[in-house]
Design brief:
alpha/beta, Nucleotidyltransferase, domain 5, six-stranded mixed sheet, five-stranded mixed sheet, 5 helices, 11 strands, 25% helix
Length: 225
């Protein structure tokens, strides 16, 4: 059983993934005030409500960013603590890889984006390789309205804020863009967990002392006004 965590977006989520790739449970919430006070109790609730004991956990997976600076620290700290206390592996997954992965079924290139500062997003481009999507670009930050200029072939675009990001990306008027359905515009912990399951099967783990959040950009700290 893998415990998967996403705290890199305002909608945080937790999931349990069985060894054969079944999503045993998933919990998603946008907390009022974007606080994480209910985060740890939610993990306990997920385990107790499904009847699983913490001893059944074989690994912990977490989204490592890019995304919310505070959220990434909370999620990675929790994942490290659980992995250390249970003596189980930690697997850190790119937040953009997790957003893109459910769209591998389209057979098309994918552009995945996640909110950065103000009207900017972090984004990366992906190509189909067998049954999976493989990142073909660096993760960089761009204004949402500039995303269309990065795309020169038929591509599915997806992000983590359907109303804001789709509307702004449409400003580019690029006929190569196909927008994913609204249901896909969330970063789900189950996507993190399923990507981690592949690495778990290959004994591909992260070092607890070395793994850090993938912020990509420095924090946007400014004086009031």
């Amino acid at each position: 059983m893998i415990l998967a965590i996403n705290s890199s977006t305002a909608q945080y989520s937790i999931a349990l993934i069985t060894g054969d790739g079944i999503i045993a449970a998933e919990y998603m919430v946008i907390p009022k005030g974007n606080t994480f006070t209910g985060f740890i109790p939610a993990i306990d609730m997920l385990l107790s409500s499904t009847g699983y004991d913490p001893s059944s956990l074989k690994a912990v997976a977490t989204a490592k960013g890019p995304g919310s600076f505070t959220g990434l620290r909370v999620g990675l700290s929790a994942a490290k603590g659980i992995a250390y206390s249970r003596n189980i592996p930690l697997i850190a997954i790119s937040s953009l890889d997790a957003i893109a992965s459910p769209l591998s079924f389209t057979g098309m290139p994918v552009c995945a984006m996640i909110a950065s500062r103000r009207d900017e997003v972090f984004y990366a481009l992906y190509n189909k390789d067998g049954d999976d999507l493989v990142r073909k670009s660096d993760i960089v930050s761009k204004r949402i309205s500039e995303i269309g200029t990065m795309i020169n072939e038929p591509t599915v675009v997806v992000g983590n804020d359907y109303m804001k990001q789709k509307g702004r990306a449409m400003d580019s008027d690029n006929s190569m863009i196909t927008f994913a359905g609204e249901v896909h515009w969330n970063l789900r912990a189950s996507s993190v967990g399923l990507l981690a399951l592949t690495r778990f099967r290959n004994n591909d783990f992260d070092n607890l002392t070395d793994v850090v959040p993938d912020y990509i950009a420095a924090p946007d700290i400014r004086l009031p006004g």
